[in-house]
Amino acid sequence: MVLNKGATAILFAGLLATVSHAAIAAESVNFVSWGGSTQDAQKQAWADPFSKASGITVVQDGPTDYGKLKAMVESGNVQWDVVDVEADFALRAAAEGLLEPLDFTAIQRDKIDPRFVSDYGVGSFFFSFVLGYNEGKLGAAKPQDWSALFDTKTYPGKRALYKWPSPGVLELALLADGVPADKLYPLDLDRAFKKLDTIKKDIVWWGGGAQSQQLLASGEVSMGQFWNGRIHALQEDGAPVGVSWKQNLVMADILVVPKGTKNKAAAMKFLASASSAKGQADFSNLTAYAPVNVDSVARLDSVLAPNLPTAYAKDQITLDFAYWAKNGSAIATRWNEWLVK
Amino acid sequence: MKMTAASRPSTPIGSAAGAPGKAAVMKQTPSLVQRWRGAGNLVPALLFLGLFFLAPLIGLLLRGVLEPEPGLGNYQQLFANSAYARVLLNTFSVAGLVTLFSLLLGFPLAWAITLVPRGWGRWILSIVLLSMWTSLLARTYSWLVLLQASGVINKALMAMGIIDQPLEMVHNLTGVVIGMSYIMIPFIVLPLQATMQAIDPMILQAGSICGASPWTNFFRVFLPLCRPGLFSGGLMVFVMSLGYYVTPALLGGAQNMMLPEFIIQQVQSFLNWGLASAGAALLIVITLVLFYFYLKLQPESPVGASNAR
After folding, report:
1. How would residue A337 be classed by pLDDT, with cut points 50, 70 and 90?
2. Of A93, A288, A295, B68, which has the fewest CB atoms closer than 10 Å, so is most exposed?
3. For the CA atoms of A233, A235, A239, A245, what is the dihedral angle to 10 degrees?
4. B140 touches chain A (CB under 8 A)
């Protein structure tokens, strides 16, 4: 028994030594994103060229889980080096002290659209909530802006809305109710929920991109609020789906570095490469999400470019991530109350 | 290790007490000692559970009263807000309905498995098990395909002219109950079928010989004998339903939010772990209370009696 234990201990120590030795020998970055086609594109556009150029291995991991991220930082055992998170979460996590400040000697801050960069995060990509509709369901009626969602007489059928209490739904309700874009914040919650009440029974909530596509393409809903990349993919597949970019609502994903990462230097190098003009343009050309680097626009595929939020900057309203980071939790309480009422 | 060492020497004492001539002692002491004879073997399991289950659980419960500041603020928030009371009510009514329906559907199935010739029974049982082993997500999405407005069932009914507006069977309570009842059926069928298998058919025969009508025979003889299976299956389904997340998230509407979804929202989106822990603690307490009642109500098992024969 004693011998056995000793042997195990020796074996274990040896194993540990090899592992730590390997870690020192080759630098590596653990990159965490949401999986699916988005992460595939991130690997192809960022990770593979970066590994080739720098010799730093990029290990793909995921999906992003905010609870896990917090647990890692709190326990001091941080396995993730670069994480793709939603914009409002990036600010909330920074405020809670869960993130490393970024090294802007490596990352070119002045090239990044100021909407999508902070001391603790640099944009991964941005996208818009757009009004998508099923042409087979609506026929000749072509909805123009968010107010169409609340007009069930002209545009019959169910509406698909994003299920989580996060930026988007409340804003579009207020816009539909006639609030001017520059007066949206602070959000008038009473007014927004009152407006949503008028279509509450017609709402089908979606929690993920695939689900939203299924709802719209099958005609289960006639229209709704969708991520622009998902609508584009449906159109590419030949589904009878139309889109209106009027009042498109901009949301972003942000790359952050959890506090206490063991590969901080390599992570910063990776971020510099991913947010570069080339990295951002390559990723956009693969996904129909928009680049955060202002120099990337010139490098976009000319066929794809008209389908990106960058082409609709005029009608665009950027959601206030900072407002949501601060008030999100309180809004969620109201949101839940309204939902189950 | 220490506990094993301590409990081992007690065994010879037990057997010494069992020596002839000490009948009075023999009746009491050895039984107690004998009961704890194998306690040492429990140590690995206890260690494992203590380290990987009990300790994190206590940590979770502590979070509920320590974060964001020490006190009962989280629980106050949970109970004071009528929305959360509603969430709790939703959780219970869904779990209750699912238990009811899976019992109603599982009972005849378990009975059929018991009654048909052995080979057939095994086949049906395999099908039940197979459905249990298929990916939960795939099964839930299949229900979506069947139930949605443009789905198979609605299209068929409309083509036959039975309805002219699609029935709303998904993204609401109906969808959740249908999907979950289906998923829970195996958890009813397995214990119930084991109970039914152990019931001696002669008992039913004896009942009818004594003049019981088929109905009386069923309600006064068969059903009471099935009670242990019904109880354990029903409790398992109810408790599992309380904590279910995937199916309600896909087949339900947001209006029917259940407690697990609320907990996930707080943990993942808002890092509000204090409130989430309070919610989780509530679920645990409810489960424990139910388990207590189960132990109280559980009748003397006829299965055990028939096995002893």
Report:
1. confident
2. B68
3. 110
4. no
CA distance A260 to A263: 9
CA distance B288 to B64: 18
Q: Do B269 and A96 count as a contact with CB atoms less than 8 A apart?
A: no
The residue to which tokens 């003049």 are assigned? B211
Q: Inter-chain contact B150–A218, Cβ cutoff 8 Å?
A: yes
Q: How many contiguous H segments (helices) and E segments (strands) does chain B have?
A: 18, 0
- pLDDT over threshold 90, residue A183: yes
Higher pLDDT among residues B153 and A14, named by residue? B153
With an 8 Å Cβ cutoff, is A62 touching chain B? no
Q: Is the pTM of this model over 0.90?
A: no
CA nearest B186: which of B260, B243, B103, B244? B103
pLDDT at A186 over 70: yes
Cβ distance B268 to A67 less than 8 Å, yes or no, reads yes
Helix axes A277-287, A264-274, angle to 10 degrees: 70
Question: Does B165 touch chain A if contact means CB atoms closer than 8 Å?
Answer: no
Q: Which residue on chain A is closest to B172 by alpha carbon?
A: A204
Residues A152, A46: Cα–Cα separation, whole Å: 44
pLDDT score for B34: 77
pLDDT of B97-135, one tens digit each? 999 999 999 999 999 999 888 888 889 999 999 988 889
Q: State the DSSP H helix or E strand holding residue B96, giving kind and residue range, or none if neither.
A: helix B82-115
Q: What is the mean pLDDT of chain A?
A: 89
Residue in B with minimal Cα distance to A221: B149
pLDDT under 70 in chain B at which residues? 1-30, 298-309
- Chain B partners within 8 Å of A203 (Cβ): 253-254
Which amino acid is residue B305, in one-letter code?
Answer: A
pLDDT tens column, A242-269: 999 999 999 999 999 999 999 999 999 9
How far is residue A144's CA from residue A130's CA, in Å, rounded to a whole number? 11
Nearest to B271 among A66, A165, A339 (CB): A66
Do B255 and A340 lie within an 8 Å CB cutoff?
yes
A194-231: burial string, b at 16+ Cβ within 10 Å, e else? ebbeebeebbbbbebbebbbbbbbbbbbbbbbbbbbbb
Shortest CB distance from A340 goes to which of B87, B271, B273?
B87
For B251-277, b where at least 16 C-beta lie within 10 A, e where not — what string? Answer: bbbbbbbbbbbbbebbbbbbbbbbbbb
Q: How many CB atoms lie within 10 A of CB B26?
A: 14
φ/ψ of A197, rounded to 5, equals: -55, -35
Cα–Cα distance, B202 to A295 (Å, whole number): 86
**CB contact (8 A) between residue A333 and residue B270:** no
Contacts with A218 from chain B: Cβ below 8 Å: 148, 150
Q: How far apart are CA A132 and CA A206, in angstroms?
A: 14
- Residue B83: closest CA among chain A residues belongs to which residue? A337
B82 touches A: beta carbon within 8 Å: yes
d(CA A86, CA A253): 5
B247 Cβ under 8 Å from any chain A Cβ? no
> Which of B83, B254, B270 comes nearest A205 by C-beta?
B254
